[in-house]
Design brief:
CATH architecture of the largest domain: 3-Layer(aba) Sandwich
Strand order of the largest sheet: 1-3-2-4-5-6
CATH class of the largest domain: Alpha Beta
Radius of gyration: 20 Å
Shape: globular
Largest sheet: 6 strands, mixed
Number of helices: 14
């Protein structure tokens, strides 16, 4: 697996043959096999939180499906680098659906790329299951039967973290926001919670994607005198913001709140820089025996613990394959019906449910980064401060703008 990924990393795309059930009873499958494409960031700022780890997670899901079912069929796993560009993502999605017979696209970090793929999937009547994108538009104003949102969204992440920081006295906010769809959504959802809770938003400043220097943005945020500087960004943008804020001494006077942060970010920063920060995640490798067992398998091959995106890719691919087995076909609507009827039960989700708007509802975790003295072993990074039930973590259906709910 790792050798395949190294070669494909140079090429920007790859194929992993995971043939199952040679000689097994055939189902009603297009092209006589199921083809899954992981469209991800193999080399950019989201590659640590998704990238090769998301491809590995999909492979583990296929392996576990094979072990757990009597319904077997051939599966091909392909993957490609969308370079965090919407046009590259849409071109690859169209090629996969039209020429390569891909039945489902997974992961797709970057909301702009995800929204581009969402439109292609709708046009082609194929599945796209998003793990690495944050925009709530996927299951709201742009919802479609073929577009499913699995790991998190800006509402679940930003709202939970904002509530926690507000309770700690952080009632005035200034946003440092990535200037793309996901960043705008994170700012809006967190700001809505702050205002609804009686707090104030002193302003915001937008920074470009993958900004090389945050000094001017941070100085503007510092000058606002807000108690909280909220980072509405992700990946290397988040870690670089935090590093420079610590260097400038900003964290001695103001609170940093990350609206979208991953365990790989904390690992890269080190506990000395990230300590005491609140964040919200959909998965923590050290949560219980099920998460630890799966994460150790992942670690053996990837040499780092999985992020919530990578764990979500595993869960979404596994549930999709279960849907095909239950429907006895890979045709989209019968599979979708089965996926909605079955609980999502695995190490990522405990009795999760796939709603009519495409949102997979599951528990979310409010976490606080440990101080260095509190960490007892490698990757022991979080206190679990609160478990938010899925029906409270995500936008309620009665507030949804998804047109599918009106039919």
């Amino acid at each position: 697996m790792q050798n395949n990924l190294k070669l494909a990393h140079l090429l920007g795309a790859g194929t992993i043959m995971l043939s199952m059930g040679v000689g097994a009873q055939p189902l009603l499958l297009s092209d006589n096999e199921v083809r899954i494409g992981v469209l991800t960031d193999m080399s950019g700022i989201f590659s640590d939180l998704s990238g090769p780890g998301s491809v590995l997670a999909a492979e583990l899901a296929i392996e576990d499906f094979k072990k757990s079912t009597k319904t077997t069929f051939p599966i091909k796993l392909v993957f490609a680098d969308h370079q965090n560009k919407a046009d590259v993502a849409s071109t690859r999605a169209r090629q996969w659906f039209d020429a390569d017979g891909v039945d489902m696209i997974a992961d797709v970090p970057s909301s702009a790329a995800a929204l581009a793929v969402l439109n292609i999937a709708k046009e082609k009547g194929r599945f796209a299951i998003f793990s690495g994108a944050a925009s709530t538009r996927i299951t709201n104003e742009e919802c479609t039967p073929s577009g499913l949102h699995w790991a998190y969204d800006s509402y679940a992440l930003a709202a939970s973290t904002a509530r926690a920081v507000m309770k700690q006295g952080g009632d005035t906010w200034f946003f440092l926001t990535a200037d793309y769809a996901g960043g705008h959504a994170l700012e809006k959802d967190a700001a809505d919670v702050v205002k609804a809770s009686g707090g104030q938003v002193f302003g915001s400043i937008k920074h470009p994607f993958s900004a090389p220097d945050f000094s001017s943005f941070l100085l503007t945020a510092q000058g606002s005198k807000a108690k909280v500087i909220a980072l509405a960004n992700a990946g290397n943008d988040t870690t670089n913001s935090i590093k420079q804020a610590v260097e400038f001494g900003i964290t001695k006077q103001q609170i940093l709140a990350a609206t979208l942060m991953f365990i790989t970010d904390v690992h890269g920063l080190g506990l000395s820089k990230a300590q005491n920060m609140y964040l919200t995640e959909a998965f923590y490798w050290d949560f219980d025996e099920k998460t630890r067992a799966w994460s150790k398998r992942f670690f053996e091959k990837q040499k780092r613990m999985p992020t919530m995106v990578q764990a979500s890719v595993y869960s979404s691919v596994l549930h999709y394959l279960k849907g095909i087995a239950a429907a006895s076909t890979d045709e989209m609507m019968p599979v979708l019906k089965k996926m909605r009827s079955m609980p999502v039960e695995d190490m990522f989700s405990r009795n999760g449910k796939l709603r009519e708007d495409g949102r997979m509802v599951h528990d979310m975790y409010l976490l606080q980064v440990k101080r260095p003295s509190e960490s007892k072993y490698p990757w022991d990074y979080y206190h679990v401060r609160q478990i938010t039930p899925g029906d409270q973590a995500f936008i309620p259906l009665e507030k949804s703008t998804c047109a599918l709910l009106k039919k």
